[in-house]
Design goal:
two-stranded antiparallel ribbon; 21 helices; mainly alpha; Growth Hormone, Chain: A; single chain; 2 domains; disordered N terminus
């Protein structure tokens, strides 16, 4: 790689990769923050079905990148990015077209709201599954190739700045993607949930064009691990009891964190009304992380990674408790907001704060558990907790929404619906229990592993 000055000047490939990362994140977060609404309100899936599908969707995106990254090494980063953005554009475009096809077939009627005529009971809604797989595979390339590009296009002198720019692009993209959801829903009703996919397809198509025109990567692709080596690493990770237990415990944290997308949008709209802004509330999380992650890192610099992670885990039950409190404060506005919305924002803020303690130090701790020389390969599986938490957290969300905060169309009157939602806050009490168990589990884990390490040092 050519030498680069210790300034903010980077190669064209670096800037191209970061710009398309921003576009991809805007597309993904715009769609994903509303995915359960799209599945239920547009395609007619039940709360449980929508939750399971969304969970598998998210889980695949965190399991596949290590394997797709190996394939990207073989075909070259530029070809991998073109393949990824081609698949994403086709997938998001299909999510936009699919409801129109159902409408033309007489299965759905669009007005300001969508009236489902034959979709809920018919097989047609399951056409979403192959579309989801296309987006999942396309998105899996992005995570590995973009971070790989940042690594290749920086040196020791400017790598920290390079990753700070990358992190900034991710958050700008996430913020912008979530922000567009509310205006579309206000102006178009539920049909805005469909048009949102056209926005996402436009973002990924633009990214495809930018990669084709401007991306010129460094030589050296084809040097990565083979799929066989990666599979062996996965087996090795899964046979190390200390890593498996840690992954299971951290899964509890991410099960609660995932409710930002699994439960929160439907819960807020059903409890606080259609004028609520769940996509905007979701932006509180990245905002808190950006503002406080540096401060928290500095505060915890003399503490062990396990101590910092435990501190974050013990914040999470209070996050879920805040979310539950919204339903206990009545329906009158508090500080100009519906109590459910206000306490949701408070809970999301605490989630972001907890993430500042946990996420950076988790990667540090996980890497230290790997055999010497295999840190990078092991870190490829550090997000197995997100794979597990996506499936478990989303599935549990669907069951709890169906039980304690069901949709309006299941009831003949508003009074009956209100009675069914009287204990909707139980959803968050369940997740508070999950957070408490995870926090206590990490405390016990720390005590046991420290004892094991002391015993090993004496031998």
């Amino acid at each position: 790689m050519t030498d680069q000055a210790t300034t903010w000047r980077f190669s064209r490939a670096f800037w191209t990769a970061n710009v398309v990362e921003l576009l991809e994140r805007a597309a993904w977060y715009g769609v994903f923050v509303a995915i359960t609404l799209y599945l239920s309100r547009i395609l007619g899936f039940s709360d449980i079905e929508a939750a399971v599908i969304s969970g598998v969707f998210s889980a695949g995106l965190y399991l596949l990148p290590t394997f797709s990254g190996a394939y990207a090494d073989r075909i070259g980063f530029k070809n991998a990015l073109l393949l990824a953005f081609g698949l994403l554009t086709a997938g998001y475009g299909s999510m936009w077209v699919l409801p129109a096809l159902l409408e033309s077939a007489g299965l759905a009627v669009y007005g300001r709201e969508v009236q489902l005529l034959g979709v809920r009971e018919g097989w047609h809604k399951w056409l979403f599954i192959p579309v989801m797989l296309v987006v999942m595979v396309g998105g899996s390339f992005i995570k590995s190739v973009i971070t790989g590009t940042v690594a290749k296009e920086t040196n020791e002198a400017n790598r920290a700045r390079g990753y700070s720019l990358f992190y900034g692009m991710v958050n700008v993209g996430a913020f912008s993607g979530k922000t567009i959801v509310k205006p579309l829903r206000v102006s178009l009703g539920n049909r805005g949930l469909v048009v949102l996919n056209l926005f996402a397809a436009a973002m990924t198509l633009l990214a495809f064009v930018l990669v084709a025109l401007f991306y010129r990567g460094q030589p050296g692709e084809g040097e990565g691990k083979s799929l066989r080596e990666i599979w062996r690493a996965l087996v090795a990770v899964c046979t190390r009891l200390r890593l498996v237990v840690l992954i299971v415990i951290i899964t509890g944290f991410w099960m609660v964190q995932n409710q930002l997308y699994a439960t929160m949008p439907k819960y807020v709209l059903r409890m606080a009304g259609e004028d609520a802004s769940p996509s905007w509330y979701a932006n509180v999380n990245p905002a808190v992380v950006v503002v406080f992650v540096g401060l928290v890192t500095q505060l915890m610099r003399r503490r062990s990674a396990l101590f910092s992670m435990t501190a974050g885990m013990l914040i999470m039950p209070f996050s879920a408790l805040c979310m539950a409190m919204g339903n206990l404060l009545g329906s009158g506005p508090v500080l100009g907001m519906h109590p459910v919305a206000l306490m949701m924002v408070a809970g999301i803020g605490l989630q972001g704060l907890a993430e500042c303690f946990i996420s950076p130090r988790y990667l540090e701790y996980f890497s230290k558990q790997a055999p010497a020389g295999q840190e990078g390969l092991y870190l490829g599986f550090s997000h197995l907790h997100t794979f597990l938490s996506s499936i478990l957290g989303f599935s549990l969300s669907g069951v709890l929404l169906d039980r304690y905060c069901p949709p309006r169309d299941r009831f003949a009157t508003d009074a009956a619906w209100a009675a069914a939602k009287a204990h909707a806050h139980y959803i968050w009490l369940v997740f508070m229990g999950v957070a408490v168990l995870a926090g206590l589990g990490l405390v016990v884990y720390g005590a046991v592993t420290r004892r094991m390490d002391r015993r090993a040092d004496r031998q």
